[in-house]
Design goal:
homotetramer, alpha+beta, Chorismate synthase, AroC fold, 5-stranded antiparallel sheet, 10 helices
Chain lengths: ~350, ~350, ~350, ~350
């Protein structure tokens, strides 16, 4: 089930070490200027090998549009995009051919499908998220037309928390740090882990600005539930919170309710969503990534034949998947919002009549 | 979009103060013994008015099966269930007819749909979750046949955390407390808030036991992402974590990876899911509920005409929605797992051949 | 899989001889006046027992709305409707308890589900179509607001074909005949078959008037393909044609193409659809019903244990299912068009911007 | 909405004169031998330019698999296939840049999307069906494992009907003729039309052999309704019938019912489907294609600016789209059956238990 979204949707294909990966984006309204440079620039933000904080695997992640665009504009037909793999080194994986890496999906994919595609995790690799970023870039182009913007950054690494959130700073930071004051400490934590042949977890904070009131389709396609789906489905994500989220569970109602005034809400504990529908405030998400499971210390595991072995992984890996992960969070958020925008258009009979008559 | 699930799915209807609410459960395999007493007993666990820790609204929540069962067994056709409302007091709501309650969906529903169904929140009321519990009970009956069990309880109220998790104790506890040692403190917190005309948040912990390896449909119908969707969609939920979740973001890979041995995993930080697919360990979720937004203190808000007013709510409300919410979490978890069980059946060609040939 | 439609959708439940049948209609825009009398009048057009040309089973088919309507208007939430069965005579079916009726779904349901709900065909009975008519009535209320009208009638019975199509006449005719000149001959054919303990087939012609240009979602949710799906799914339907349909297969392109002029098309061989999208002309469908399989002559069949028997059916049945079937065709057409109207709203970025900005 | 199918599904992309077209096939069970030569051979059967009965456009239709296959076998992950266009001559279309071709989707696409992709019909071109044939080939590989076979051929061209159906002959015939006795007459009809700068319609007959009893998911994913959807969605198709279809509408029940004996049905008027579920007999479909709308005679039409013009088309076109269309019918039928096979696996609780326990 490799498709996400109802009206604005995408379907992805491809494995870490296959020929190519890509996506088909469906439901893009016709007449949208498809800025290929922007799409590429989004992929560039996610692409590996840009710094020592990332995997050493070098991929250009050059995206090619195969369909759905005519004379620079979307035509209403599906937009297919392909990214050819160029730097796959499958032989790097020959030593794990028959071994399940702890913390990875090797074990579960093998037991589900009876097949061991050992080359870099195959389909379960975070490399697939390049396709999500391509689709998300198209969503962002659409949302720009509605003055909806999605920003994000890293608010925590290895337990070191940002105290302020500067999304412009994050754009310039090599680790997408939201708080310049803790950025160096966060970088140090990543490097210390890397040097220890280990990895660290982190937290991405995503904000959707400019959303109109009314997005989200109760009861089972709510804005918050679908954002949670989208985020939890990203590789290595283990928790998602909306607004004050976890901490709201230890508050009283009188502290947590956002008072309403004529020009909006006095606070935003709710993170911009009430009853699964946007309330016009910023939509705020925190997305928790576990540490990269690929570490270079000896670990206990088993082989395909269920023999116990102790082994040490080789290869090239991000010491902190949250860093590049935040770009994927943005992409998925953009896709969810674009989908909700389209779904919302038939909400009242007056709106439908105005559209047609 | 009032439907949830792909193969085992349900669609709900009904408002807090309408004639009735209910659901159609679709995809139930034929030949399943439909134990009506069990379904009713699940509804009884969720129904309001059982104690001072819950709303005073008295509803029998008597469920009636209208279709899909013949001679006590499912027939493979949709099972419709209806629960008539009996204790609705719409006049309780006359004072909020034109006012949006802070923390509620009144504001967003009105702005989305242009309609103000002021009677107890209408469709956005948690009363609708009775239908989810009915559907979840059918899912549980199916899972029982596969020896899969879902348990849950309250692990935190008002910041008071359980230190151990006793799911049998939770079944007997009036607040579904997991830890008898903190139960009284948790009860006191609820009552103190209630006496202060306030409310408290809480956390439900859900465990799925006995799941086979292999459930979950990557990449966009993963076990964890759909569980997150299911939980975040429950009224008042603001965060969801799988396994160690939030805390894993501040761990190192060497701490967070679960070593694998011939007879299973040495630890379960992952919460039973790797790459979106179950690994045979217990699936563990924590679900964070905000405090009930209905409080009886004066609050700032606006009317339908956007006039600012200060008002105090009247009515009957749970001082801590997490308590009854945990039953809804169980129901939704059961539905997700039942759906994944059916979806998983076509995963290998050998499995398909064995089924047919 | 008891749901139909994407944005305007419905899910049905119920068996021929169960307690009740009904539906949940989802996606109805808020603010639509829900005229219950109109909905009931549509059910009355389909209900059995109105004349000797129909089954003698008397059912009031009284529809009750359980949700989704507040102060007479749709609220954007699901509209549940229930119809209680009152005149079921399950004992009529005791003689077929263990026997599969030829031409019916008894054989296939039993082999699929392993269950024999012998009471009047259970879920496979055309009685379920009452729920479709209820849902279709809501769709018609929506389409009325857009000046889209759906009409139909019987154009052929037992090979006796209408030579002209008078949809107003059909409304008044007890057999919904389109051509008053052949109506008596058609009635005679039905009665002759009935007297011979036999049944006859027939053809319904459905026309959708006033559709805007542009409805239909290529490539796999085309207007014609979904209409074909909707019609072929009605009990006893064995063929569907759009526009000139079958006869166009023996024409030349120069005969079959519809020339275009500034004010529209010069002819309508295409039946209002080109490339799966409406072209602004009337959408025209012919729907072919087989003769009612329930006949009262001796037939060869087998029992549940696969023993061969010759048996004669008892019970109450329509001698020509096409007659009441035409009302179901209208309902399904209305639902398809309502769905396409909503799906079409996001087709251009300019339309989306106009809606939001 | 460029996706078809629920469990075995595919999504296509691409335009007639774009860079490439292709598909992502999702839901293929793991462990299936993916015979690339077979897939290519299916594309070769559909590819243009093989004879004078087809368009002169020469395309190799060389298919490349980008993902989802490892060491020759399906892995359970999506199979992406791409076919690059090589012989597009967009300048052929410069004369219709601003003109809508009668009988084509030019008019409707332009009015829906506000875009005129004049190059060979863009997305609405039958060239897209190459992607369906690729997906259908994968479905056939799966069905071969279950001994289900799909055959087809041309049973009628220009009103000249086959009197017998020899599916082996059709495989060898350059026009896929089912009846050698009328094949020459059918060929002559095509050539006469071509010489007259005109085109002819035709009918494809498709038979699904070896289907188990029980495929089809009532009530809204019936085998017949989804086959109708699949066939009506193929370019130029205007009618679909199952079994005796149209003619059954003029029969009596006593003639049309198929008597049942211990070893199966005595006749097959039903075309292998009862109540939307397969009954174990051959599934039989007739699919009616209109004549190719591209003809080279002068026709009335309008420009984008709605100016009336008389124009004559240039370019390369099939004089009878039914011929190559029959290969597309087979492909779509294979996809529907593969989907139904997977959907059917959860039909009874005993089947589910056997699968898991």
């Amino acid at each position: 089930m490799n498709r996400f979204g109802q009206r604005f949707s995408f379907t992805t294909f491809g494995e870490s070490h296959g020929k190519a990966l890509g996506c088909i984006v469906d439901g893009v309204p016709a007449g949208l200027l498809i800025d290929e440079e922007f799409i590429q620039s989004e992929l560039d933000r996610r692409k590996p090998g840009k710094s020592k904080f990332e995997t050493a695997r070098q991929e250009d992640d050059k995206v090619e549009i195969l369909s759905g665009v005519f004379e620079g504009m979307s035509t209403g037909t599906p937009i297919a995009m392909v990214i050819y793999n160029t730097n796959q080194k499958s032989k790097d994986y020959s030593n794990i051919k028959d071994v399940f890496r702890p913390g990875h999906a090797d074990f579960t994919y093998f037991h589900k499908y009876g097949i061991r595609d050992y080359r870099g995790g195959g389909r379960s690799s975070a490399r697939e998220t390049a396709a999500r970023v391509a689709a998300g870039a198209v969503a962002k182009l659409m949302l720009q037309q509605l003055n909806i913007e999605i920003v994000s950054g890293i608010c925590e690494i290895d337990g070191i928390k940002a105290e302020s959130f500067d999304y412009d700073h994050a754009k310039e930071s090599i680790i997408y740090a939201l708080d310049a004051k803790v950025e160096e400490a966060q970088k140090d934590a990543v490097m210390r882990a890397k040097e220890a042949h280990d990895s660290v977890g982190g937290v991405s904070r995503v904000v959707i600005k400019g959303s109109p009131i009314g997005l989200g389709e109760p009861l089972y396609y709510k804005m918050d539930s679908i954002l949670a789906d989208a985020m939890m489905g990203i590789n290595a994500v283990k928790a998602v919170e909306i607004g004050d989220g976890i901490s709201s569970a230890s508050l009283r109602g009188s502290q947590n309710n956002d008072p309403i005034r004529a020009n909006g809400f006095e606070s935003n504990h709710a993170g911009g969503i009430l009853g699964g529908i946007t309330n016009g405030e910023d939509i705020i998400l925190n997305v928790y990534f576990k540490p990269t499971p690929s570490i270079f210390q000896e670990q206990h595991t088993v082989t395909k034949d269920n023999d116990e072995v102790d082994f040490s992984l080789k290869g090239r890996h991000d010491p902190c998947v949250a860093i590049r992960g935040t770009i994927v969070c943005e992409a998925m958020a953009a896709i969810v919002v674009a989908d909700m925008v389209l779904l919302n258009m038939g909400r009242t009979i007056d709106g439908v009549k105005n559209y047609y008559l």
